[in-house]
Amino acid sequence: MGPVAVEGSWAQWLQEDPGPSGCWRILDVCFVLQVVLILAYSTIIVLGVLGNSLVIYVIYRFKTLRTVTNFFIANLAVADLLVNTLCLPFTLVYTLQGEWKFGSTLCFLLPYAQGLTVHVSTVTLNVIALDRHRCIVYHLETRMRKDVCFTVIALTWVLSAILASPLAIFREYGSFTLEPGHTIQACMEKWPGTNTDGTIYSISMLILQYFLPLSIISFAYARIWSKLRGHVSPAESGVNSSVASERHRRRRKTTKMLVTMVVVFAVSWLPFHAFQLATDIDSAVLDMRDFRLLYTVFHVIAMCSTFANPLLYGWMNRNYRAAFLAVFKCRSGGERERGGRLDSIHPAGGGGGGGGRRAKKIVLETQDVVSTRLNATDV
């Protein structure tokens, strides 16, 4: 189910009155909670848009970062960016207003787009884990070809679009009368059969969006970690030295970063999915006085995953950290530095340039890149 998709039993909950003193009574949200929600969602939106845009930009701009794993990371950033722009602003307004203010067309499109992006995120995390499993566990040093990588990314979006399609098909936009003279606009799921159909779909999506992907990812990274821990050092194997040792070090650091990404994703979404599952299994949860408050808090926690990844890249990966710093330095250094530093941040091929070229090779080359080419498992 999409992150802001209205529950099939939403109309039932609308009829519940938490009492005159409840801050979460429909159209009677207290001022303090309004301010907290606006600040929370605004912070997530700003950090998510800036961080994910920066990740996409540096992968596009710096040739050193154009590896298969980074293309998948860029795809993940695109999905998170769409969540920040298509999900959170509308969720904030919808939560504060207590009714659907965006018309019939967006009623069908927004929940679908939101469900689509969540599926893209989970499928992409699986693809990254399986690609690294292929390279590390089976010693396949050859890169996945770029055309194959882009084909996999396209298939990710196609598969996600199919999985999210019921959110657009089984939906209804209309008026709902709370009491005589008080009618609001609602955007709700409408299944052809009983409410059981919606529950079955919701639980199925919970398995496909959360439990199954995390099981696959956990299996892949467990095998990868076991393989890396059992690595025989170059000194023990008699193989030359620094290159193999440095490659192994980068693999371990990159794997740690990617595992941390998955852990953040899993922990962020766990409360929301658990609450959603409880709602689907027992409709009495809707009768809770603080239902809407809990739903919103868990949703905010889940959305934190959309800006966490860029922070992880800057913290745990020196290539990304150096690229981020290079962007800000170039932006503050004027046109001369923008033209020189950005174009020379990767080791260029061919001869010529002499001392001028060496003077321009900065940041990534000096901080992290020990060879002129990254192999299949580098980020």
From TrEMBL:
Belongs to the G-protein coupled receptor 1 family. Its main location: membrane. The chain crosses the membrane at residues 31-60, 72-96, 108-128, 148-170, 200-222, 257-275, 295-315. InterPro entries: GPCR_Rhodpsn, GPCR_Rhodpsn_7TM, NPY2_rcpt, NPY_rcpt. It is found in: Cell membrane. The keyword Iron does not apply. It holds the Pfam family 7tm_1. Residues 335-344 have a biased composition (Basic and acidic residues). Keywords: Cell membrane, Disulfide bond, G-protein coupled receptor, Glycoprotein, Lipoprotein, Membrane, Palmitate, Receptor, Transducer, Transmembrane, Transmembrane helix. Residues 335-357 are annotated as: Disordered. SUPFAM superfamilies: Family A G protein-coupled receptor-like. It comes from the Eukaryota. This is Neuropeptide Y receptor type 2. It is a multi-pass membrane protein. Residues 51-313 form the G-protein coupled receptors family 1 profile domain. One of its GO terms (molecular function) is neuropeptide binding. The keyword NAD does not apply. GO terms for cellular component: plasma membrane. It comes from Neolamprologus brichardi (Fairy cichlid).
